[in-house]
Amino acid sequence: MNIVLLHPGQMGVTIGQALLRSGHEVRWVAQGRSQQTRQRAHRSGFTETAELIEAFDGADAVVSVCPPSEAQSVMDQVLGCGYQGLYLDANAVAPETAQAMARKLGDRYIDGGIIGPPAQTAGSTRLYLSGSGADAALKWFDDDILGVVTIGSDASAASSLKMCYAAYTKGSSALLLAVRALACSLNVEDALLNEWSLSQAGLETRAKATARGTAAKAWRFSGEMAEIATTFAGAGLPNGFHLAAREIYDRMGPLKDSADADLELVMNAILQTPGTADS
Ligand SMILES: NC(=O)c1ccc[n+]([C@@H]2O[C@H](COP(=O)([O-])OP(=O)(O)OC[C@H]3O[C@@H](n4cnc5c(N)ncnc54)[C@H](OP(=O)(O)O)[C@@H]3O)[C@@H](O)[C@H]2O)c1
User: Fold this and answer.
1) 7: CA distance to ligand 1 center in Å?
2) Ligand 1 centroid from CA 13, angstroms
3) What's the CATH code of the domain at 113?
4) Which residues approach ligand 1 with their CB closer than 6 A?
5) Could you give the C-alpha distances from 116 to 195, 221, 237, in angstroms and in order?
6) This prediction's pTM
7) Domain around 66
8) Tens digits of per-residue pLDDT, 83-95?
């Protein structure tokens, strides 16, 4: 098959590599993308097309792996090109967002949700699929590294699963960083760390690892927190946890792509008011 990957980011490139290993041609679109995306795509052996419309000539399927906040706009751009084939959205979006896309695409929409880090080691990462085309999309993958799992015909089940999973992982990360910032602001940091060492073993180390692991990606988590808040509200549950988590990640936004951000830099970013973090 000829499969168009939008776009080869850190996760997307590993989904494309799984498709390549499964025997497909993988196309990517250079228009609007950075040098980092270009390098990832070229290193992986994907076929470059200059513009979106060019990529759809003879294409069998589109796989979207992009910032969650852009998922609908990427799909609209694809439809604007007159593309008529299957469309797998694998982004971290609310079931409401997935259903809105499904309404536009009908049976051509396949819902996806990715859990785990970029798929470089067998067993680390799973792509969950749902919707009427999920069984067909499962057959695109014949790979030992990326796990692909179907979870039924509901057009938004894979997105719902991803929202539940990330609500805890990224929500608790934001809470932990917010608590460290609060203790710092109230001048009780040393006393809190001492108490944690007595009664919450491992939390100090976890906070440091969380700061290092999230700083560069926080800008992208903001949109994901908004999707999770929409999911809670849609289910009639309080969504304030994740609206606040979004604000924490927004404050960390200026650390985008910083390779060496540590807890101190993250605390500085969180404790400044939005818009002044890099001043
Ligand atoms: N990374 C993970 O560990 C992980 C884990 C689970 C799920 N996911 C999901 O995978 C998706 C993408 O993650 P990722 O790690 O690949 O992100 P990423 O490394 O930030 O890459 C995002 C890709 O989308 C492109 N992009 C940036 N801004 C865009 C825009 N406004 N419109 C369209 N495309 C844009 C980027 O291109 P340029 O930067 O070149 O502009 C890049 O190629 C998200 O939905 C995320 O929730 C990721």
Assistant:
1) 7
2) 9
3) 3.40.50.720
4) 7-12, 33-34, 36-37, 65-68, 70, 74, 91-92, 114, 117-118, 220, 224
5) 32, 15, 26
6) 0.95
7) 2-155
8) 999 999 999 999 9
